[in-house]
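Bench log, entry 3. Co-assembly request; chain sequences pasted below exactly as received.
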Amino acid sequence: MSFSLALRHRFPSMTMDVAFEVRSPGVTVLFGPSGSGKTTIVNAAAGLLRPDWCRVEIDGAVLADTDAGVWLPPEQRRAGMVFQDSRLFPHMSVATNLRFGMRRVAPGEIRFDDVVDLLGIGALLDRRPKALSGGERQRVAIGRALLAQPKLLLMDEPLASLDSARKAEILPYLARLKTALLLPVLYVTHALGEAAQLADSLVLVEAGKVVAYGGTAEISARAELPLASRDDAGAVLICRVDAHDPVRMLTRMHGGGADFLLPLLDMPLGALCRIRVPAREVILAGRPPDSISLHNVIAGTVRRIAPDPLRRSVMVEIGLPDGGLLARVTADAVVRLGLAPGVPVLALIKSTSIEVLGT
Amino acid sequence: MPELLVCPLYIHLYTGCMTMLSPEEWEAVRLTLAVAARAVGFGLPLAVLTAWVLTRCRFPGRPLFSALVHLPMVLPPVVTGWLLLIVFGVRGPIGMLLHDWFGVRLVFTTAGASLACAVMTFPIMVRSVRLSLEAIDGGLEQAARTLGAGWFDRLVNVTLPLASPGILVGAIVGYATCLGEFGAVITFAANIPGQTQTLPLAIYAALQVPGGEAKAAELSMVSLTLAVIGLVLADWIGKRLNTVMGR
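Structure output for the full assembly:
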């Protein structure tokens, strides 16, 4: 099953030309700087904006196809949308807001009580939107979109208007939602943290074009993409919890075809978990070091070397059996170690510098 | 008569006229309220529709349409009355149809007085509704669309409730303005006691008769009271509804 979107549109200041196809149940993050056209893409998916040319398809159902003259208006698309500014109806209570979409469709699998529980908004039902905090408003807006039994969920920077504390409050709900939902989700953000935590697929957008798209692990580990030239660049790996060692206070995870040791985690064996390895924390070595404090010595092959003149450094992409890592090193290190595509190399990673992003 | 505005005298006159109004004066008051009610009753739905079209629809000739709607506000009322005579008179294009098909005559009738009032206050009502429609965040209607609400559904459940303070205030101010319509009414509906003689017309008639000042003063007090009540009510309801609508 898949979700595909393609559109071409000419704005006075920018020409959009976008096409991507991602796996259907799952979160696809549209990632890119402000003004790159991410919101245009979501609005076209929702039907709120009609591009010059456009084709949107979910699991074989065509929502829009300019060539075939198909254009479903927003009210017939069943595309739930969460806006940055929540857009709750001010003249209705929270409960009425939640039921607005629900009352306009046939009963579906998403039940009122479940959503209220999942989002923790049971205590707010009788209130007016005006009396809610920003975080509460966004949670209600998410619930309202879900209860309309959408076939596609669109989230346009749902956390952008919140401060970091409120963001941290909502992210766990979104992560829970992600595992509970069986529908495609398009999530717009320019915050790398949200993307790394939520994305199953990443679509990188820049100046109205799709730079690259694919699985999060794959895209985040590509040295030549703009994502890798960020200060906080790093590869995301989907890992499985393999073993706990309470004596050494370590947890072993398997991901990308390699084993990682991390400080002991409170997670059941076999659980899936994403980790992020920041590129600037990775040391490259030709031989295994002896007598060293770090735990992770991971064998791989150099796949690509991309210079990053802005930071006077070089981004090295290391291929693992089933994934990849990024390492930021100096140009001198590349020369000294004789790094080139295809050369075997060891990536040294401190277990404490690996970020655990949750499920 | 500025001395009439002195407070104790006003109270005296106010209590006075409530007991001292003659039956035909009461008739003028009753008629005025009825004419205004009819004018607002028919005019308001049209005003809401017009305001909605003016804020939401883009079509060629929109500026002309807008100008036409607002014309009675700037035109001398006598001219509006005369135009109504031309159009709705028994020989006018619409007046003739109404007369021949339905046997309805508007000129020199209570219904005609209501029509004149409605036309005169129409721009005021449109303006009030339009302002509140324009104040509605367009994003809310977009949100309603993504939640499966068609245009009529959106209009009834989102747009109109949110515009309701403006609609109600428009109705009240429109009603209060109707109570004072003079020029268009006297031109189109004439000054027939019991049929088209509303308060301002009765005051005017009283002033034409020697020794009618007392009667004019009484009626003026009634007029003043009604106007003040209308404005205070409009303000209070506007504020109240805005709170209810969560603004």
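The interface with chain A takes residues 137, 139-140, 142-150, 153, 158, 161-162, 244-247 of chain B (CB under 8 Å). The longest helix of chain B spans residues 23-56.
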